[in-house]
Amino acid sequence: MLVHHRLTLLEAGQPCYFAAIRRAHFYAAARAGDRLHLDVRLLRQRRNMVRFSGVATVAGKRLCVAEFTCAS
């Protein structure tokens, strides 16, 4: 949803795809019933591509960090 919101050139119903995942580091695994918190920040937008950085945490414990690119 965030990608669709940021890519102002997209028409309604036009899909977005993961294009790349970079600098991904996994520290622990989430378990069934955990409440996963995703903190995602926009790094850059160029034409139909958007790069984000994100951190996944459970109860304040960092599980994963990564940069990812989405394209239309």
Question: What does this protein structure show overall?
Answer:
The protein is mostly beta strands and 72 residues long. The protein has a single domain, classed as Thiol Ester Dehydrase, Chain A (Roll). It is 7% helix and 58% strand. It contains one helix and four strands. It has a four-stranded antiparallel beta sheet, with no helix packed on it. The two termini are 13 Å apart.
Q: What is the number of beta strands?
A: 4
Order of helices and strands: HEEEE
Give the count of helical stretches.
Answer: 1
Shape summary: elongated
Distance between the termini: 13 Å
Q: State the helicity in percent bands.
A: under 10%
Which CATH class? Alpha Beta
Strand order of the largest sheet: 1-4-3-2
Supply database-style keywords.
72 residues, mainly beta, Thiol Ester Dehydrase, Chain A, four-stranded antiparallel sheet, 1 helix, 4 strands, 58% strand, elongated, (3R)-hydroxymyristoyl-[acyl-carrier-protein] dehydratase, EC 4.2.1.-, HotDog_dom_sf, lyase activity
Short description:
With 72 residues, this protein is mainly beta. Helices cover 7% and strands 58% of the residues.
Summarize the SSE layout with pairings.
Elements: H1 2-6, E1 17-26, E2 36-46, E3 49-58, E4 61-71
Antiparallel strand pairs: 1-4, 2-3, 3-4
